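#dry-run=false #mode=assembly
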Amino acid sequence: MWHFIFGNLTWAALPHEWFTIGGTAAMFLMAGAVVGWLTYARRWRWLWSEWLTSTDPKKIGVMYIIMASLMLFRGALDAAMIWLQQAMSVGASHGYLSADHFQQIFTAHGDIMVFFVTMGFLAGLLNIILPLQIGARDLAFPFLNSLGFWLYVAGAVFVNLFFVFGGEFAATGWLSLPPLSELAYSPGVGMDYWIWSLQISGLGSLIAGINFIVTILKMRAPGMTLMKMPMFVWSSLCSMVLVVSVFPILAVTIGLLWLDRFFGMHFFTSTGGGNPMMYVNLIWMWGHPEVYILVIPSFGIFSEVVSTFSQKKLFGYASQVAAAIGITLLAMLVWLHHFFTMGAGADVNAFFGIMTGVIAIPTGVQIFDWISTMYKGKIIFTQSLYWFLGFVATFTFGGVAGVLMSSPAADFQFHNSLFLVAHFHTMVIGGALFGIFSGLTYWFPKVTGFKLNERLGKTAFWFWLTGFFTAFVPLYILGFMGATRRLDHYTDPAWQPFFITAGIGLVIIAIGAAVQIAQLIVSIRQRRDNLDISGDPWNGRTLEWSTKSPPPFYNFAVIPEVKSRDAFWEMKQGGRPQPVYQDIELPKNTAMGIYVSAFVFLAGFGFVWHIIWLIVLGLGGAVTCVIIRALDEETEYTVTAAELASMENNHS
Amino acid sequence: MNEALPAIGFQRQERVAFGFWVYLMTDLISFAALFAAFSVLRGSTFGGPDGADLFNLPFVFAETMLLLVSSFTCGLAVLAAEQNKQPRALIWLAVTFLLGGGFLALELNEFSRLVAEGNGPQRSAFLSAFFALVGTHGLHIAVGLLWMAVVALVIWRRGLSSKNFSNLLRLGLFWHFLDIVWIFIFTIVYLMGVL
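#status=ok
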């Protein structure tokens, strides 16, 4: 009877170790604080109807960014714990973490930073900026947008739920390679939490990918041909094409791993004829393009930022487009470089090695284009441009390390070493994350209506940049010295100073992050001094600056007519026509995305703990909700031309 | 549809249709990954039976015929709806539903026979891959049947509005798509397994 109701869930699964008790207490405290404030301020209805059920991409985007910031904090705590352990655990000392706990931490760190931080920030920026840049009022499928966000949230909850139920996360590394991740070697629920957090948030990413592609290809303002799209739109399109191309592979791969674990099948087991190496191939067919999914939109952000703050047209637009498409195609032809040592043979390794090296060419083209854009421009050194300049330094540095490793012969030496760890952190932090920071500071006034404090932003940048090199250059050196990745203990005392230096770097980065929080608070307090009245604080070139800051819920009262690449720049030169208002239709709010995700979450919980009735309830509920939503005939409302005119005239 | 659609409604339907095509392509990639897994593992019988021992081609041929004919009748339903002949469209949808249901029944029969003989998905990597690939297709068929029932019900109650018609068109796309995937399953799993 117990097993029927609770599956494998027992009292022993509840928190009883210091980190699960601490994590659970922290989560309850934070939730309690939020609930308390909402109740005290009587904001529940406001939260529900203005934000949670909203289908407005600007609001969904802001929710993505808040969620990603929270997860960044969580992932950074993991990083700090890893570093502390590695700084302490030498020779006779074994640090403060058990080997198993250490493994769980670096697994969670990797998954959180990729799936819930970087993907979250990107989804947020795309939601906010993309419709504005193409002159649209909404995404193609507002309900699916809401659903995608809530699936992302459900996945994020799964990554943290083990604190409360189960007490362990996967201890298998961020990609959970079998046979280690099979039931025989990872019998606990941590592995199942990993599967369902990725499966559910991956489904959200796939839905978002389809939505953005349709939006870009079908909803551009009249006159905006493909070759007149802003570079951020192009890079988003490339990134989303990669999403829809490879996320199905991820879903199948971890689906098969789940079949192995749940039904005792033999896809990747070491018995029964299973083939663990097939998993390694499949997961990297997703995993390598995923890296480009993260970084290509950042390239687009830099194109916007560099062009705006050089007050010049982007240099080599067509070559930038070609480079973005080239990277997209090459991204799918390099996955094997993650396991040159598997033994695929010299010919196969040579092919993938060359393909990997070739990626440096389109990336280099983009960097030269940006620098050429700055050449003879009237450059304004804002914080957004600082992040770009920092990116050029870090990304070139890490990119050259990557080209070094693309040679199979060299890779046999660097494989699985801290050199590799340093390389991909350089790409993801120095590439994707710096781009996100650049974009967040650049578009912040568009979203909120006031600018961020410049001085604190630049201070934060310098902390981040110096902290970054202090933290990761020692890892490159350690890699050369023979330190492998994922070490919870080492015997050579000569390594310790490097690990400690890396730890100091982390502290410097943390100061940078603290300055960013201070920057946000100070900017909010001083917002009246930094208001963006015109909607165009940077003398921008693209359509998002042609509407007010923050934009009205309908984005544009009149859909703009696009004649050239820098559409808004041209309008400013020519003067704008008198607006003629028409009735517009906008999507109503819906809570269905929340309901569907909640049911999917329940089903996932049932799968983790083998609670059959919960699985049936969750899946049945989700399907029922989708059908109810599909039968709803009235998902939109009309804003009449008269209402539009009065709103426009009141604001301006 | 004969009724003139307002421009906004038309744009929206076009968006939905395009989005559905993109979704179908993502689903095709899922199947491609499953086919790849099956191809890698088809020889890994681990001392158990292989395709030649297990598959009964006439039986699978019957399944195939049911599905192919159901694709044809689904097309007839769409054609009838296009000519605004609602009762005829509903009848063809019902026929399609029965044929699809028959296919699913045969497939479940095959699965239960295999499991009863001790050749379930746990037996070997080959059988794991077989059940996963064919089962995923079967799951899609089941979803398609549910969708078909809902579409038929809505058309019966609310008539052939442009929204319901475009819904029916997408169901048709989905159904033909599953048919194409089945052709590959029939060829790669069954024919190449036996011959």
